[in-house]
Design a protein that fits this description.
By secondary structure, the chain is mainly alpha-helical. The chain has helices at about 35-40, 40-65, 70-85, 90-110, 110-140.
Length: about 150
């Protein structure tokens, strides 16, 4: 559980980012704990443990909700965001995830991809309809309360 730097008051930076006055104006990596907490090693470790425990609880709830109806992925990303307030690795994972979601959104909005998806959906629905029609012609519709004992 490290803030990514050796000194208690320092904040780690990504290699492609610079501080004030630089070409890139990105948000710095590292701990966002209050200054008085970063000054004391024991307080910082306690703070990091607390942030990790809260983030872990939120991520576990999100994982539990994945197979259930509910916002499982949103809750998992919320837990990652909690971790990202303190841990560089979580900040990097969250950045990567945001970049991938943005790329996927742009690809999905491409007219060629949308047209392809609509065509594939239509073909799939036609195939399901044909199979359902064949089943109904062959076996008919029998309500459960009309089924005789076999």
């Amino acid at each position: 559980m490290s803030t990514g730097s050796d000194e208690p008051g320092e904040v780690a930076m990504a290699a492609d980012e610079t501080r004030a006055g630089g070409a890139k104006s990105g948000q710095s990596l590292g701990s966002r704990a209050p200054e008085f907490i970063r000054k004391h090693r024991l307080l910082l470790l306690s703070w990091q443990f607390l942030i990790f425990a809260i983030g872990l609880a939120v991520v576990v709830v999100g994982i539990i909700l994945l197979p259930l109806p509910g916002p499982g992925w949103v809750i998992i990303f919320g837990g990652m965001a909690i971790w990202a307030t303190e841990f560089v690795w979580a900040q990097l994972v969250l950045r990567w995830t945001k970049r991938k979601v943005t790329e996927a959104t742009q690809r999905a909005l491409d007219p060629k991809v949308r047209r392809r998806n609509i065509i594939l959906t239509a073909i799939t629905l036609v195939i399901i309809g044909v199979i359902l029609g064949i089943y109904l012609v062959r076996f008919g519709i029998t309500m459960p309360w009309n089924i005789e004992n076999q």
